[in-house]
Amino acid sequence: MQAAWLMTEAELALDARQYPEAREALNRLAAGEGRHIAALRLSLRTHQGLGDWRQVLHLVRQLEKHQALTQDQAAPIRLRAHRENIAALREDAAQINRYWRDMPSADRGEPRLVLETAKALGAAGDCVNASRLIEDFLDEQWDSSLIGAYADCAGGDTVARIAHAEKWLLSHPRDAQLLFALGRLCRQRQLWGKAQSYLEASLGIEPSRACHVELAQLLDHLDKAAEADQYYRKAAVLP
Fold first, then answer.
1. pLDDT tens digits for 8-33?
2. Tell me: the pLDDT tens digits for 42-99?
């Protein structure tokens, strides 16, 4: 009866979003009865509400182990927890790198986590590891959603990144995002002719507002105002 009362107390606290009270009831339950599946489920909801994302990961693993969560159910919770933990480490590149190394290998295969981690490293000034992380992933499996962050990262060896991206281009010659990224990287290195060619090739495959603006800015820099205006006008009518 004590266990049932504590479970009810935790459920009522959760319904009222009183997460510290729910945690207290569940801790008392664990001390007297141990953790069973229903209590683990309530604990998961409680720690999500508290924003204790490291504990959320621990509870997800326990529930999966007991087959109380399927992989499909656990995946979005794990993704959210990792993203929140990485965000909490912002501006600390060493901690972000350590967190990534400690992450289970299966989770490191999630492209959205690769992207979030690379962006966090770039924002923390570690463009070298941000680029390497994306390179390691894309060398194994292709996902165009990562290539923008590869071009965004300020610093590091831009020439090496251009060379690496051009190797990808051999296997993905019609990837508009890759061509756009190469155009941006070449522009950073003041390789004006190559930048223009890559940007025009990207637009020929999949027109985008961002690429039109990038090319217009490049042409402005090259004192080709009339051509630049054409691309600015085209960018204005795209979403």
1. 888 888 888 898 998 888 888 877 66
2. 999 999 999 999 999 999 999 999 899 999 999 999 999 999 999 999 889 999 999 9
Q: Long-range CB contacts (< 8 A, 24+ apart) of 8-17?
A: 10/39, 10/42, 10/46, 11/42, 14/42, 14/45, 14/46, 14/49, 17/49
Token pair recorded at residue 87 = 């965000």
82 touches 113 (CB < 8 A): yes
Task: Tell me the two tokens of residue 175.
Answer: 């990837």
Query: How far apart, in whole angstroms, are the C-alpha atoms of residue 22 and residue 19?
Result: 5
pTM: 0.85
Report which residue type is found at 8: T
**Encoded tokens for 41:** 């489920």
| Alpha helices (H) along the chain | 2-15, 19-33, 37-50, 53-65, 71-88, 93-102, 105-108, 111-123, 127-140, 147-152, 158-171, 176-188, 192-205, 209-221, 225-236
Is 133 exposed, middle or buried, given 0-12, 13-18 or 19+ CB atoms closer than 10 A?
buried
Report the C-alpha gap between 36 and 43 in whole angstroms: 10
Residue 110, helix vs strand vs coil:
coil
Structure tokens belonging to residue 100 = 């990534």
Question: What CA–CA distance (Å, rounded) separates 68 from 38?
Answer: 9
**Chain centroid offset of residue 43 CA:** 26
How many Å apart are CA 231 and CA 173, to the nearest integer? 23
At position 126, the amino acid (one-letter code) is D
